[in-house]
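input
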Amino acid sequence: MIKIIDYGLGNIQAFVNLYKRLHIPVVVAKTAEELAGAEKIILPGVGAFDHAMARLSNSGMKDTLIDLVQNKKVPVLGICVGMQMLASGSDEGVLPGLGWIPGQVREFRNISGLADIAQPHMGWNDVKPIAGCPLFKGMEDNARFYFLHSFFFECADKSDSLATANYGLEFSCAVGKGNVFGVQFHPEKSHDFGMNLLKNFAEMANAEA
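output
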């Protein structure tokens, strides 16, 4: 059973609607009790990093999420700020991230040569996945997704980068390590591409995670 964490951030209903169209059952979890027993987890997020981390902590679900992902190895997919929360921390705030994928969330304008780049990075962009990534099955050559962000995930280990996009520089727009995955773009706003990615996550064998 896929469970979508609802801690007050992200368009939860959009994910529910997409999975309904795919005839894949999902549950929206607003408490630790509702999150318990998840076989796969989606962690959405929008807005500022510290606000998202604080909302997750205050939801009462953080400890259960950590237990499921770290101890029970349940696959998790972080989306937008949900992906950034997987990092060690963010230049946007002071709170620590979940730290499941080593790296730092950086602002485009803080990168040398990008001080004048328009923010946010908004709209459709090409995505280049690494070969064999199960999230992008069937989209290896033509993936396009919708982005809306000013910060990006800089992996400490480049092997944790699963896909890249270009906005002034080539940056990781999908990351993964073990059973932990994240995407910077919005699959719920990316039409067929997003639907295919969410379907791939749902069908991914836990052994692939």
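quick obs: Residues 191-203 form the longest helix (13 residues).
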